[in-house]
Write a structure and sequence with these properties.
The complex is a heterodimer.
Chain A: H1 19-31, H2 36-50, E1 55-56, H3 62-71, E2 94-98, H4 106-115, E3 121-125, H5 127-131, E4 153-155, H6 162-177
Chain B: H1 2-11, E1 16-20, E2 23-28, H2 30-42, E3 48-56, E4 61-68, E5 75-82, E6 89-91, H3 100-111, E7 114-116, E8 158-164, E9 170-176, E10 183-187, E11 199-205, E12 208-215, H4 223-227, H5 232-239, H6 247-262, H7 268-296, H8 300-321, E13 330-331, E14 334-335, H9 343-366, H10 369-375, H11 383-388, H12 393-397, H13 405-408, H14 429-456, E15 476-484, E16 487-495, E17 507-511, H15 513-517, H16 521-525, H17 530-540, H18 544-548
Parallel strand pairs in B: 2-5, 6-7
Antiparallel strand pairs in B: 1-2, 3-4, 4-5, 8-9, 10-11, 11-12, 13-14, 15-16, 16-17
The chains are: A alpha/beta, B alpha+beta.
The structure holds iron/sulfur cluster.
């Protein structure tokens, strides 16, 4: 069975920016060959998974306020099935890291990430989490959360507008839609040591 | 001022006097400082320590204290320094002004100044295994000394105090924050009710809180240090990222401070726009506090109500400044661009809507039995304590302190406006909540008057004074306060008069209101239930990046 390109309701495929990445994931899947039964089941599971992504409340500063607006009436995250913001990492699917991460916070973030159950995802929301942002030259700010935890979606902006946050959320949904769940994501049990890439 | 100088000279003959920034500056030696501080408070009624800024003057290292007399609103500042750079030591004044407790810990963290007699000389923002004191001019920035440490801090319970005996020998005495048999629970740094990343360690007796130890610094971003490597217009950006719920106001403050140093006057239109933005920001901030306070107590619906109206204000910002948050709108000399053509219409509309919705808020929450039971009489803060801990803003006014900077030291155009300072005397959580609700009405009142004034000066499109491309300030220091959403926000700016083309501030210190607010967490929560800790801290209402900077 062939894996198709992921579809998101109300946004055309061409309107997304980095389709090459998604296509490379699709290619990888197709190259390893997908069984029809498993493939269909995977599709179903991924569809449901991607439409009920529960975020973990992790706001350290300004970006968190925009995230609160996302939850409030005008933007209403519930449309994406992502309104159930959890306060415990063990109940969350992804961590939307909003706000600067300082040296003192780094061990805490790492621990919280490790407490989350697999499969788990990370959105680096805001310039601070992408690269240190306005505080890049500071003596105690981590220059991008990817120095401590792996990141799935990078979302620039200071702070990103709520619309941009939705875009990041949809990108994450797309990514989930083209992963192998059975025998893939659901098998990740062991803890992996994360080694940040050289910059 | 001459009177005051004579009075102080009588108290302390060794003191030297100067007038800087229209304020009396007293320079004393550390040996006389503690006695003088006592006298200043008792005899001259300087009962509030408004700002404490550590400074490294290269040949010496020390602290500048800004004191306020809360009756007359007179201010004076005192400079105390030591030439011993290896082991700088000053006498602590935390026994005189309680607010100095955390302030001195900050100065210790940044400059390594040890305060003799301070009960709890620990670092405040940085990890306890940090090497060096970052704001010293000779700080070693080598990242290998301070890498990202992914293990937890050890020995968190250790503290120490420095005691001086009669012969002037200083001795270090180790101690513990909590006793061995105390039951201590951890709260935060990632807890939704702390409104950010603050951490408490709470000692409990059953459900009663015995002591709260505030551990801060989880969002300490080193803004003050970074400002020293930027030019003046560049430093403006950080003001908006400290208390992001008072972004315009903080930025306004720094702009005013630099304008004061440069001696330029801002066009009336720009000043009016700034003032309106400030008040809109205050409205937005108080709506957010309403939303968060209610949600912390389980009233989720009220949160949505608060946020619904905030969007109106965001729209105004969006249209005029091009961003919903971090607007970067004021600049030195005025504002960046003129307002959107519909600005006045939008502001009036927002005022009408919010005013009409106020009734809904009260219906939904204020009269609610649960809310009243949890807030009335809980977490009382007495007036003397509020002054002693330098609590300003709505929380201070709920305890009966007359501390609205817009009234006490009118800046911008506030003296032209007719509005009331909301003061209550109960000092409990309910009072703090109600002060905010009533202040929103006052902001609306100011905004309406400002709209009228703005229309009257229509046709005058002049929005920014010409400022030299390269801003150079003369040597000196300045202090400017404004009323931010959570209290008096102050900027201490020192320039060394460096003639190089792109001058950088020598020292920039932000006296944030929330920093003082956390000082009373222990005081107000003690002997209350652990569940009340949430209500009390929510009603005190702080923004964590503003504490940590
Ligand atoms: S990216 Fe900008 S808005 Fe977001 S946390 Fe950092 S400074 Fe604040």
């Amino acid at each position: 069975m062939e894996v198709k390109k992921p579809k998101i309701k109300s946004m055309r495929y061409e309107d997304f920016k980095d389709n090459e990445y998604i296509e490379s994931l699709v290619e990888q899947l197709n190259a390893s060959g997908v069984n029809v039964v498993v493939g269909k089941l995977d599709q179903l599971l991924n569809w449901s998974r991607s439409n009920s992504l529960w975020p973990f409340c992790f706001g350290t500063s300004c970006c968190a306020i925009e995230f609160m607006c996302l939850g409030a009436a005008r933007y209403d995250m519930a449309r994406f099935g992502a309104e159930v913001a959890r306060n415990s990492p063990r109940q969350a699917d992804y961590i939307m890291c909003q706000g600067t991460i300082t040296y003192r916070m780094a061990p805490v973030l790492k621990r919280l990430y490790e407490q989350m159950a697999e499969p788990k995802y990370v959105i680096a929301c805001g310039a601070c989490t992408v690269s240190g942002g306005p505080f890049k030259n500071s003596y105690c700010v981590v220059k991008g959360v990817d120095e401590i935890i792996p990141v799935d979606v990078y979302l620039p902006g200071c702070p990103p507008r709520p619309e941009a946050m939705f875009y990041a959320l949809m990108q994450l949904q797309r990514k989930i839609k083209v992963t192998k769940f059975l025998g893939g994501d659901n098998r990740k049990e062991k803890r992996m040591e994360y080694v940040p890439a050289e910059k | 001022m001459a009177d005051l100088q004579q009075q102080i000279a009588a108290l302390c003959p060794q003191a030297q006097f100067d007038t800087v920034d229209n304020l009396l500056m007293v320079t004393v030696d550390d040996a006389q400082w503690h006695a003088l501080a006592q006298q200043l408070k008792e005899n001259l009624h300087f009962d509030q320590l408004s700002c404490l800024a550590g400074v490294d003057w290269k040949d010496s290292i020390g602290v500048v204290y800004y004191l306020t007399n809360t009756d007359t609103q007179e201010m004076v500042h005192v400079k105390v320094a030591t030439t011993d750079r290896e082991h700088p030591m000053l006498h602590s004044v935390s026994d005189i002004w309680a607010v100095a407790n955390y302030q001195e810990r900050e100065a210790y963290d940044f400059f390594g100044i040890v305060f003799i007699g301070h009960p709890d000389m620990r670092r405040f923002f940085l990890r306890n295994d940090w090497v060096g004191h970052p704001l010293r001019k000779d700080y070693d920035e080598n990242p290998e000394l301070n890498p990202i440490r992914l293990e937890d801090e050890m020995n968190e319970d250790d503290t120490c105090t420095y005691i001086e005996d009669e012969d002037g020998n200083v001795k270090k005495v180790d101690g513990k924050v909590f006793e061995d048999d105390e039951y201590v629970i951890n709260f935060g740094p990632q807890h939704p009710s702390t409104h950010g990343v603050l951490r408490y360690r709470v000692s409990l007796d059953g459900e009663m809180v015995k002591k709260v130890d505030v551990v801060s610094g989880y969002i300490h971003r080193g803004i003050e240090k970074m400002c020293e490597s930027l030019t003046y217009p560049q430093t403006l950006l950080y003001t908006e990222r400290m208390d992001y719920m008072a972004a315009h106001i903080n930025r306004h403050c720094l702009c005013m401070c630099i304008e004061k140093a440069l001696g330029i006057e801002v066009p009336r239109r720009a000043e009016l726009i700034r003032l309106m933005m400030d008040e809109l920001m205050r409205l937005s901030s108080h709506l957010l506090s309403y939303g968060c306070l209610t949600m912390d107590q389980g009233a989720t619906t009220a949160f949505f109500y608060g946020f619904r109206e905030r969007e109106l204000i965001y729209d105004i910002f969006d249209r005029t400044c091009g961003a919903r948050m971090s607007m970067s709108y004021s600049t030195i000399g005025g504002v960046v661009a003129d307002v959107h053509p519909d600005f006045i219409k939008d502001v009036r509309h927002a005022c009408d809507v919010i005013e009409s919705k106020m009734k809904e808020y009260h219906q939904l929450f204020t009269g609610n039995v649960i809310a009243r039971n949890r807030m009335v009489g809980v977490g009382e803060l007495r007036k003397e304590d509020a002054i002693n801990y330098c609590i300003t803003g709505p929380s201070g006014r709920a305890s009966g302190v007359h501390c609205d900077v817009r009234k006490t030291h009118p800046y911008s155009l506030y003296s032209e406006f007719d509005f009331d300072e909301v003061i209550r005397t109960e000092g409990d959580s309910m009072a703090r909540y109600m002060v905010r609700m009533d202040e929103m009405l006052q902001s609306i009142k100011i905004l309406r008057q400002a709209c009228d004034k703005f229309e009257q000066c229509e046709g005058n499109e002049y929005i920014a004074e010409k400022v030299p491309k390269m801003i150079k300030l003369p040597a000196g220091h300045w202090y400017q306060q404004v009323e931010a959403s959570r209290g008096a926000f102050g900027v201490y700016l020192e320039s060394d008069g460096d003639p190089k083309p792109f001058q950088k501030p020598y020292r920039m210190h932000f006296q944030s209101p929330c920093f003082n607010l956390i000082g009373v967490v222990d005081l107000t929560c003690r002997d209350n239930m652990i569940a009340d800790l949430i209500t009390i801290t929510a009603s005190i209402d702080f923004v964590i990046p503003d504490i940590d900077r």
